[in-house]
Amino acid sequence: MITDRFVLADIARPSGGLAMLAIDQREALRNMFTAAGAPAPVPDSALTAFKLAAARVLSPFASGVLVDKQFSYDAIVHDGCVVENSALIVAADAFHPGNGIPVDEVTIDTEITPERARDDGARAMKLLVLWRSDEDPAARRSVVDRFVRECHAQGLLAIIEPVVRPPRHGASIDREHAILMAAGELGDTDADLYKGEMPYGGDADDDTLLDACRSLDSKLSMPWVILSSGVKADLFPNSVRMAIRAGASGFLAGRAVWASVIGARNPVQMLADISAPRLRRLGEIVDEEIAGR
Q1: CA distance 287 to 14
Q2: Has residue 5 got a pLDDT over 90?
Q3: Of these residues, 51, 69, 126, 195, which one is catalytic?
Q4: What is the pTM assigned to this prediction?
Q5: Please, where are the H alpha helices in 14-136?
Q6: Which terminus of the chain is more exposed, N or C, with fewer CB under 10 A?
Q7: What does the pLDDT look like over 19-37, one tens digit per residue?
Q8: 245-269 pLDDT, tens per residue?
Q9: Is-catalytic flag, 232?
């Protein structure tokens, strides 16, 4: 059993920064296709085809690529879609719909084990953790601890992704406060990397964003990156800058990179023309900010 926190070099750029691509979205991605005008029901094959194309076109510009078992893992591994210099990261979470949303509950996915992920060349696994103020923090911690132990036993990095949700009983939530509460609760586990929500969705002045990111950083005893869900694509580059200046190591993001090409007539070409330059520039921002520390 490996107990020390692992080095992040396996999923990092030469600068030491993290510029990672997420294509592990599931029913949310199907909903994005529908919103873009695709005839419903959108078939699973359409989701898989998009994910494979994104992995092929974009992995050369990412230090790691996060994939899901449900729609992409098997095909991506079989076809070798992720380039050698980009680390394969596997989602260890099973999503359960409910209450009108695609992800109402999350459990550890028994269909993909750390042992299998390791044997297929993965360097890390990721677990989404839904944080609600009225649910048992001990239960959340227990799931995270189990996930980390199982990853480390197979030599894999363990990435946790706490995402805040309104309480089960009552709809009100102070999102910014909840983000800090989640970080305070789960930021001192033995996980290797914390994937956190960007304060204010990146939509605030630089001083406000920097202060909020510093508050988030103060709650964490592990390296961290930001995700892009809830952040407009044009705000995400500055969000990455502010987060790194506050102590983050980079990003693990999907929507800010590729969401705008969903529904395109030629998605492969649009991934190359729009998403690849966007991801390349985000990687450059990571390098610039890491070097400027």
Answers
A1: 9
A2: no
A3: 195
A4: 0.96
A5: 27-35, 44-58, 73-79, 114-119
A6: N
A7: 999 999 999 999 999 999 9
A8: 999 999 999 999 999 999 999 999 9
A9: no
For 120, the token pair is: 């297929």
Per the structure block, which two tokens stand in for 172? 């009100």
Q: How far apart (Å, rounded) are the C-alpha atoms in residues 214 and 218?
A: 6
Q: Give the pair of three-digit tokens for residue 243.
A: 């987060």
3-state secondary structure 137-189: HHHHHHHHHHHHHHHHHCCCEEEEEEEECCCCCCCCCCHHHHHHHHHHHHCCC
Class of domain 8-291: alpha beta
Domain residue ranges in the chain: 8-291
Cβ atoms of 213 and 242 within 8 Å: the answer is yes
pLDDT band at 169 (very low <50, low <70, confident <90, very high): confident
- In 12-85, alpha helices (H): 27-35, 44-58, 73-79
